[in-house]
Design goal:
With 91 residues, the chain is an all-alpha fold. 65% of the residues lie in helices and 0% in strands. The N and C termini lie far apart (74 Å). The relative contact order is 0.05.
Length: 91
Amino acid sequence: MKKSDLDRNEGLKITGQMKQAGTPDRFGSAAGAIASRREQRKLEQAQGLVAFAVKLDGELVKQIHALAEARQMGINETVADLLAKGLADKG
């Protein structure tokens, strides 16, 4: 390949990467969001929240999403409420 072809291909590659990159967080909807994950983690720890990862059936997840949307709550709050009710029934 010629030098000009290599340069043109490099330019196309860079242009493609720029198109896929999207809007940087500092300009988009996340402009008012918390600056870092570390700060977010500190806020959650102050609230007594602990990360708890589980694997669930896809249909169950869809039901949880639908319930959260119907209640106009977040997923975390909905799952916490469901777990608390389930544990209260067992006790």
